[in-house]
Amino acid sequence: xxxxxxxxxxxxxxxxxxxxxxxxVWAAVVSDTGARVTSYIVGLxxxxxxxxxxERVPGPIEVVQFLADEFASGDVWPNFYATADRFLWGLAIxxxxxxxxxxxxxxxxxxxxxxxxxxxxxxxxxAIIWALxxxxxxxxAWKAPVLTxxxxxTPFVAVNVAxxxxxxxxxxxxxxxxxxxxLQRRVRGLxxxxxxxxxxxxVRFAIIVGWNGVxxxxxxxxxxxxxxxxxxxxxxxxxxxxxAWVVLFVVxxxxxxxxxxVPIQKRVFRWRTTVARR
Length: 278
Description:
Layout: H1 3-30, H2 32-53, H3 60-73, H4 76-107, H5 109-124, H6 127-138, H7 143-166, H8 170-178, H9 183-220, H10 226-235, H11 239-268, H12 270-277
């Protein structure tokens, strides 16, 4: 093989390798993980540009520095624990009440006629309304944020569970009734397996809206918690502190969803993937 031919061959191989590398890079960028990481990077860059252009918009560096100072001063964990405690109690109430309401609405036509529209109205009421009402009812007591979470999140669980019950195959329901299967066993063995996916979807929505609700409730009527701390720095006209606590609030719910809820959902419903492959 001549030297010129060898050189052309090497260039062709190099171009092919570069094209393959570029294809792999592009595939990584447009993948689910790559697109998510890219959106985070673009968001941070846009945030940094806004912070450089406008004096009253703190950049990510200033926010991180402020959060580091808050952690060092010991103000983060007590307030975060207070918010998490209220949120978990409210979420527990919402899940129990939502599942019960959803089963009743989905299984009995009379209950559906009485309660379904009420649940839809509950979906339409924003968390800020419940936060203001509970502040008027209970003042600065712990009941206000707990009840705000419960009232905000319950309709999301109930509506999703009701939809799951209605999606249960009618033939199986009629057959179980014809064979005299007791109601408790029918719910446990037939209805619940069909609605579990809907329950999990409702719980994810409930966590998101409930987390917003507890922040708003603490903003209006509390002397501790993440919402109160955010309001504290807002009233002090300290935008670094205000944005820092908002970022902490948002990052927590995103991390909770991605690192806890999504893996749990995949693990709980992994049998569906196995069945689908068969």
